Amino acid sequence: MVGSKEAFIxxxxxxxxxSIGKTKAYAIIKSYNRELAAKGFLTIRGRCPRxxxxxxxxxxxxxxxxxxxLEKKQLVVDEESNYQTKEKALTD
Length: 92
Prior knowledge:
- This protein is mainly α.
- It is built from five helices and two strands.
- The protein has helices at residues 4-7, 11-18, 22-38, 50-58, 66-91; strands at 8-10, 47-49.
- The mean pLDDT is 80.
């Protein structure tokens, strides 16, 4: 099970990541918690789920998504094999 520190981001960490003041960090957390509450999720005052914060700030849900990484690797392999096939056809 993930601990509270890993699962949630607090005001001090938001301040560090975004280089902002405490008041603005609280406002951001409050805004994100309001969005989550509207979707029916439980929220904790002064803390925001880390994954939700990362999604909102960085534009993606997880730092590491194994399924997505495998899909990207497969696309690269497919592109390389298509390139080699076309190159071989041109040389023949």
